[in-house]
Amino acid sequence: MEIKTRKKLIEPRTDAQKAYVQSLFDNALAFGIGPAGTGKTYLAVAVGVNMFINGKVDKIILSRPAVEAGEKLGYLPGDMKDKVDPYMQPLYDALNDFLPGKQAAKMIEEKIIEIAPLAFMRGRTLSNAFVVLDEAQNATTMQMKMFLTRLGEGSRMVITGDRTQIDLPRGVGSGLSDAERLLKNIPKISFNYFTSKDVVRHPLVAAIIEAYEADEAV
User: The whole model's pTM is what?
Assistant: First the structure.
């Protein structure tokens, strides 16, 4: 199954990736859970661009919790965009792979594409949009509930995360784990899982992940 974007054709490489991409087209809400390098976010952004090109959605919204920033955000130089952009960079990188630079910049300027921290989603209803929440393991339970309930008419939502990479303070539960537990039996919500076998980065990345997994299993 190929995903056509403005710059290139994307082809899922593994069975898990193929099933994931299919579920993104078939479901209003889909989760992609697994280690880094498995294409969870990359493929989700590709599908979002494809759906926009084909007129299925009017806008693309990409978000992630700016957890690493913590309280330090206020001390960073520049306005809010300058402060949060470093945390959003992986989303810009994916987008620039699928859209010509000038077109992506114009769409961001016109707010057809929004790249914003999770906190900016509060109080909004996201209609006719393709919405991706990346690094969702760093959303708290309250943030995850807030985000999921933004789903509006004609929208698609994709939640991606890696349960082994939680950066939340000790004692704060991950909203991704709670969502998985609470929503897994609801029809039309798909959960897609990746392993080190689905890593499409440098072959060493898969070997590194496997080494850590083996150590944790001891």
Answer: 0.87
